[in-house]
Amino acid sequence: MSPTSFPAAYPDPGVTRRVLAESPELMVVSFQFETGAEGKLHQHPHVQSTYVARGKFRFFRGSETHELNVGDSLVIPGNVQHGCECLEAGELIDCFTPRRDDFL
């Protein structure tokens, strides 16, 4: 499937999600956030990495809090509760292993 074949989704207010590439073993996803938008606390069995392409974010991972800026990244183990708050409008590039079939 070509990248343009993946439709945008709107999982939370002020958040746009677009799958960029996928295979059964790995998925790459862009999340665009407006300032103040939140990625609600959740957890899933997938290992997730997140990379800040633009903006500034506060991440919650288990009992930890991290502020990430452009160029920063974070790994979230499977089944760990996590979420984020967008402090300055931006974009996250997330990778999931295995693929998040619920995003397709």
TrEMBL record:
UniProt-listed Gene3D superfamilies: Jelly Rolls (2.60.120.10)
Residues covered by the Cupin type-2 domain: 31-87
Cited PANTHER family: H2HPP ISOMERASE (PTHR40112)
Listed name of the protein: Cupin domain-containing protein
